[in-house]
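JOB MANIFEST
job_type = single_chain_structure
chain_count = 1
residues = 172
[input]
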Amino acid sequence: MTQTVVSPRGMIELYHKLLRSLVKSLAYVAGTGLILMVVITGADVVLRLFHLSLTGAYDLVKIAAAMTVAAALPYTTSIKGHVAIEFFFHKLGRRGRVLADGLMRIAGMVLFALLAWGCIDYGNSLREKGEVSMTLQLPVFWVAYVLAISCGLVVLIKLYHLTHPGKPMIKP
């Protein structure tokens, strides 16, 4: 029997590959949510022309919108697609830019870790109260959990960017 030894570098590459796969999967979820919002809204508008309506359209669009935003957040972070204020950043020297960039990434990691924790707490609260959507009476606690997962992924992506400065995790 031969044992395969995986180097630390191989483990890190496997971790990065898994992280990229999760981010890309959530990007497809975001795209699907966007399409669902368009289809549901369009169907509701067309049905109203015939004095009918799509029951629960508001509930479904609201949930799809939350899912779309949550699922798009890790992808946008991984391609460094967020708005950046570079006016002051470019006034700094190279050392100042590296320091400011590192501090902002660490602050972002702390912020998104707190957001993830808050979303889990909120999801637990919704689950315990039995909170449901207005019309269709669908449980909604899981939406907060998905947002927590997305915030957790953002923390990991920011860690990647901190350890790989100047390199996007995924090419758009």
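[summary]
The chain has a mean pLDDT of 90.
Helices lie at 8-49, 57-78, 87-91, 94-129, 141-163.
exit_status = 0
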